[in-house]
Amino acid sequence: MQAWDIQFHALSVGYGNHVVLHDINATLPAGQISVILGGSGCGKSTLLRHIIGLSRPLTGSIRIGGEDLFRLDRQAFRRVRRQMGVLFQDGALLGALTLAENVALPLSEHLRLPKPLLHEAALRVLRMVGLEDFARFYPNQLSGGMRKRAGLARAIIAEPRILLCDEPTSGLDPVTAARMDALLLAMHQQYEHMTTVVVSHDLASLRTIADHVLVLREGRAVFSGSLAELEASDDAYLRQFLRREADEGQMALHEPPHPQVQAALEGWLRS
Amino acid sequence: MTQSDTSPGLLARLGAPALRGIDAIGSMTLFMLSGLGQIFASGKIFARSIRQIYVIGYQSLFVIMLIGLFCGMVLGLQGYYTLVQFGSVGLLGSAVSLTLIRELGPVLTAIMLTGRAGSSMTAEIGVMRITDQIDALDVMDINSMGYLVSPRLLASLISFPLLTAIFDVVGILGGYLTGVLMLGINEGAYLYRIASSVTMTDVAGGFIKAVVFSLLVTTVCCHQGYNTHTRRDSVGPEAVGNATTSAVVISCVLILAADYVLTSFLL
């Protein structure tokens, strides 16, 4: 069986003249859960868009299962991308379709199967994520956590070799976030050869699901290794990140307000 | 400051909008060709188009009939008081029917459909763009042009001429209401003048205009929605609003410009 690892070679990505990530060299191993970790705005989601092939890198390459993604012809590119299932940040479910129709979409568009069979396939994965009873609901009738779980169901219905998740626990309460983590682990156990890549800045999630971690900071990869290696690292930034310590050097917490603004504000609050 | 210092800036300022305009025309043309190409490539185009025919065609039917009725009634009124000065009120049927079939039917139907269906196309596709739904389609190896744009193009190609025909018929009825029932023109003269003056060339010309307008409106509206994320003036929900406004304005200008060009060729 082909190993679906993801390799970055001298990868620089960005938009126009603005470079977001510089010279990334790392491998996300096949069959493991890799977490791409980093602060807000460090380029995690941008990197994910490049792995999916939605944006082209400025320089360097991304090799998926040994194939250079951006040197493939159109047919080969589509063949590689068919091996991917993607959970977008808010689920990205189509608003005009019910949950069951959304989840069945990758099958209904590409396979000639009878409708009852497609519905049954959708119900199977909806059952896996605990949403079987909501099959006839529309996305706008669901909570954020439910939309993410439905997005996960759609991502796995075609049994991809690579599952990519963009911030699956962001904006969720701790219990729902823990349920999402448990779901990702369960998926990984069910599809044991599946390479899973999770973009996140959620430390609790990282410690629950990660086999491998890639840490990004200020547009560069500052760590790539196992979770145990990350925890044992004595790098000052990594320790600060893992301990959730504020970067006080960049903040001016005791800056006094402008007297005119202060006076106007006090007058408004008294009125 | 020397001449050489100012010239490049001035040239750039003048040239940049022109280049952007040419770029936009090229982009929209390729977008339309791609959308039309996908009509023949997509296996489920008819199933998807039926929903769009419902949205563009059926849901616009009432407003098109209403506008057509009032338009015909106003034409009847204005035509009567103009023709009565020359003792030619018998020609009212010709005036109303030819004005509607050649000009007002296709143009007003297209403008109404731009406001009602076109703006909704832009907003719907724009929201899909900013909420990653179009990216999700691409990732699932579903051609987003074939899924979103081609059904709307096909539905518009079917709906615009049909709604134009309905507008024309209801408008002629409106002219009948004012001219015959309210102002007392002879019913036979009104109907005879319609039958004797309207030729198949007029009807075909109106339909050609309707088809061209359908392509223009749908292309512009879908293009603006599809490229919401590339707007320079705004991002997010504001970009969807601005894209919708741009789509309506550009469509209306193009309808009137194309109408002039087409009329020049058809007359």
Give descriptors for this structure:
heterodimer, A: 271 residues, alpha/beta, Rossmann fold, 6-stranded mixed β-sheet, 4-stranded antiparallel β-sheet, 39% helix, globular, B: 267 residues, mainly alpha
Multimer state: heterodimer
* Proportion of residues in helical segments of chain B: over 70%
- Gross morphology of chain A is globular
Low-confidence stretches of chain B: none
Domains counted in the coordinates of chain A: how many? 2
Range of helix content of chain A: 25-40%
Order of helices and strands of chain A: EEEHEEHEHHHEHEHEEHHH
Per CATH, which architecture of the largest domain in chain A? 3-Layer(aba) Sandwich
What does this entry look like structurally?
The complex is a heterodimer of chains A (271) and B (267). Chain A folds into two domains: 1-83 and 160-239, Rossmann fold, CATH 3.40.50; 95-159, no CATH class. Chain A has ten helices and ten strands. Chain A has helices spanning 44-52, 74-81, 99-110, 115-128, 144-156, 174-190, 203-209, 227-232, 236-242, 259-270; strands at 6-15, 18-28, 33-38, 59-64, 67-68, 84-87, 162-166, 195-200, 212-217, 220-226. Chain A has a six-stranded mixed β-sheet, sandwiched between helices. In chain A, helix 3 (99-110) crosses helix 4. With 267 residues, chain B is an all-alpha fold. Chain B has one domain (60-266). In chain B, helix 4 (92-130) runs antiparallel to helix 9 and helix 6 packs across helix 8 (200-226). Chain B is elongated. The N and C termini of chain B lie far apart (54 Å).
